[in-house]
Design brief:
The protein has two domains: 77 residues, no CATH class; 104 residues. The protein is 86% helix and 0% strand. Helix 1 crosses helix 2. The model has no long low-confidence stretch (mean pLDDT 87).
């Protein structure tokens, strides 16, 4: 028995059918997993978790499976409400209001404590800072006076040195002039 060669169209058709079967199986597995985990089943959630397009979850054969799972969940929720296992909307609203009241109370307490800590720290900083700042100002004033007196001494020394330099330059100029005169006189005598 020889097998007839398949045409490219047949290969493509078989490949698409296989991919479709795999995607449908993946959707059904996701629905079963969500049912087992107790996650709310919606068409969009199933499509996202299975990684398929939205139209596939509405396709015949898949849609019925999802609708049956959703109906089963709805029956379970109704049964739980009747048994008291699920909180009613009024109970949840009461719990929410109670939680909001607690949050308001805790927020007010936090704000009061924060303000008290800030006042306490501010007083400590002010007390410490005033003493420290006065001591620092006094240190800087003393250093400033010392530097001012050193500057005055340095300026006096500079002025004295400038006077000495001017006098030395005058003496040097006079000595040069006298030397020139002596050399000129000596040159006249030798001629």
């Amino acid at each position: 028995m020889t097998k007839e060669p398949r045409t490219p169209a047949q290969v493509l058709l078989e490949s698409r059918q296989k991919a479709s079967r795999e995607k449908r199986a993946r959707v059904l597995a996701v629905v079963d997993q969500m049912k087992a985990d107790g996650d709310p089943i919606t068409f969009l959630t199933v499509a996202k978790r299975a990684g398929v397009s939205n139209w596939l979850v509405y396709a015949e054969g898949v849609r019925e499976h999802i609708e049956a799972a959703r109906a089963g969940q709805a029956v379970g929720v109704t049964r739980q409400r009747k048994e008291g296992a699920v909180a009613s909307a009024a109970s949840l609203a009461t719990d929410l209001e109670f939680a909001r009241a607690q949050v308001r109370t805790l927020t007010e307490e936090r704000d009061r404590l924060r303000a008290a800590v800030q006042r306490s720290l501010g007083e400590r900083v002010d007390a410490v800072s005033t003493k420290d700042l006065l001591a620092r100002v006094q240190e800087l004033s003393i250093a400033n006076q010392r530097l001012a007196s050193e500057l005055a001494r340095a300026e006096a020394d500079r002025d004295s040195l400038q006077d000495d330099l001017a006098e030395a330059q005058d003496d040097l100029a006079a000595a040069r002039t006298a030397l020139r005169n002596m050399m000129r006189d000596q040159n006249r005598d030798s001629t």
